[in-house]
Amino acid sequence: MQQHSAGGGAPAVTYSLATRRIVLIVSTMSAFITPFLVSSVNIALPTIGKEFALDAITMSWIVTAYLLAAAIFLVPFGRIADIYGRKKIYMIGTLVITTSSFLAAHANSSVMLISARLLEGLGAAMFFGTGMAILISVYPLQERGRVIGINVAGTYLGLSLGPFIGGWLTNSFGWRSIFMIIVPIGIIILALLFWRVTGEWSDAKGERFDLGGSLLYSVAILAVMYGFSQLPAMAGFILILAGIILLALFIAWELRSDFPVLNMKLFRSNIAFTFSNLAALINYSATYALTFLLSLYLQYIKGFNAQHAGYILIFQPVMMFLFSPFAGRLSDRVEPRLVASLGMGLTAIGLAMLVLLDSSTALTYIIGSLVLLGVGFALFSSPNTNAVMSSVSKRFYGVASGTLSTMRLTGQMLSMGIVTMIMALFIGKNMITPENFIMFIKSIKMAFTVFAILCALGVLASLARGRVHTEEPGQG
Fold first, then answer.
1. Residue 321 near residue 153, CB atoms below 8 Å
2. Residue 289: how many CA atoms within 13 Å on its side-chain side?
3. Helical spans, DSSP H, in 139-233
4. Which DSSP string corresponds to 24-71?
5. Which end of the chain, N or C, is less packed with Cβ atoms under 10 Å?
């Protein structure tokens, strides 16, 4: 019979093997959905852009809208899940992202499509901040690295199949079919949770939700993210400054709050937590826009269709899928910061190789870079996640998972912001046509230069975290 967690001060409990397996299956399926959507939509962007006659900047917003909504709501929903129940919020999030995918498939304009992507981001915020927390709640410490590795492999499977299936679906049935395929997956997840997983996880039950802090946080993130996408216009700088001021007010508010939405003590007194999250922020800032850029490059410059471009892009996530379980198990035995730092270093080398891209670059060179990037990212992600979740007590699992996911999405948003700004400087609000291919390639080279430097600096943040806890932490 399954035993259920009671609260922050409750003793450790044991869950049945069947419950643990169902939770692992469900969390891995949901970990698959979002990266699949992201990577498959990236491969379909030129087709979507052609149907709606979109310029490069507007095409980037089909990706950015999702990231913006997810980043704004991740931490608040992580805290809400800790208080009111992780399973409950997880199920609502799955329902929202399933419904919004259906709406995206039936969009008749770019405005409707971007709006549906915003709603998808809201749903993703609900299960991003809870899925990993539920998984960690039911597995003992000694198995944590292994199951995190499996969960991360689900993410990389989504990334792997996204370009391949997305390209095939786009060519065979149109880009709308990419969104429709999410609907049955979401229904299966809801069915498994409803009928096979009983009970609830709410380790902060009874604590008050910090509405004022949540509003400050959300508005600050919105100002910074949207402002970054508006650079180099003056409005962009003004929005970023306003966002930074609001973030400072948010930190001051949280330090005085009895029940903060984001416990700043986790950053102030927990070096492993702080630098592991910083390393994640830097890594995703340096790597996320890779698929977006290479998808456009392969289709516009190399002349491949969506399906063939997907065949090439699949090399990176396949390496992630193959190596992430190994990296997770390795981080159970070897200090996670060493494994993660090695992965970050390999990623920096792979990005530096892509700085040399031009119209005559051989496909074997591109594939070699993608393989190196895939191995590097796999070695970084699972150990880094293990380090974050092992550095806090169980009552902070939702907040820790939400914070790490926020670092990931904030990094992804910054990555797209950097690309949007560079494209605005080199191409402007023009469609990508043969007349501006030279400037397009220059923008790609500049972006990968910035990303390689960022990733190299990230190695320092990864090494600076020190040793992580090897026992169940106390109160974070």
1. yes
2. 33
3. 144-173, 176-180, 182-196, 211-230
4. HHHHHHHHHHHHHHHHHHHHHHHHHHHHHT--HHHHHHHHHHHHHHHH
5. N
Q: What are phi and psi of 12, to 5 degrees?
A: -60, 140
Query: Quick one: tokens of 233?
Result: 């216009």
pLDDT of residue 27: 84
What residue type is 202 in one-letter code? Answer: S
Long-range pairs of 439-446 with CB within 8 A, sequence gap ≥ 24: 440/296, 440/300, 440/301, 441/297, 441/301, 441/357, 441/358, 441/359, 443/419, 444/293, 444/297, 444/357, 445/355, 445/356, 445/357, 445/358, 446/422
Q: Give the C-alpha separation, 39 to 314, whole Å.
A: 10
* pLDDT for the residue 12: 53
Find where tokens 């990231």 sit. 67
> Is the preceding omega at residue 434 within 30 degrees of 0, hence cis?
no
Query: Among residues 293, 306, 408, 335, which one has the least CA distance to residue 56?
Result: 293
Dihedral sign (CA 326, 328, 334, 339): positive
Cβ(405)–Cβ(128) below 8 Å: yes
- Map tokens 């419950």 to a residue: 19
pLDDT at residue 468, rounded to an integer = 56
Six-digit token pair at 185?
Answer: 């997956």
Residue type, 189: I
Phi, psi of 239 (to 5 degrees): -65, -40
Nearest to residue 410, comparing CAs of 237, 243, 269, 178? Answer: 243
Residue reference for tokens 């899928």: 321
C-alpha 180 chain-centroid distance: 21
Largest Cα separation within the chain, whole Å, is 67
Name the stretches of the chain with pLDDT < 50: 1-11, 469-476
Global pTM value: 0.76
Cβ count within 10 A of residue 190? 17
**What pLDDT was estimated at residue 106?**
94
Is residue 44 within 8 A of residue 170, CB to CB? The reply is yes
* Long-range contacts of 265-272, Cβ-Cβ distance < 8 Å, separation of 24 or more: 265/476, 266/392, 266/396, 266/399, 266/400, 266/403, 266/476, 270/391, 270/392, 270/476, 271/464, 271/465, 271/466, 272/387, 272/388, 272/391, 272/465, 272/466, 272/467, 272/468, 272/469
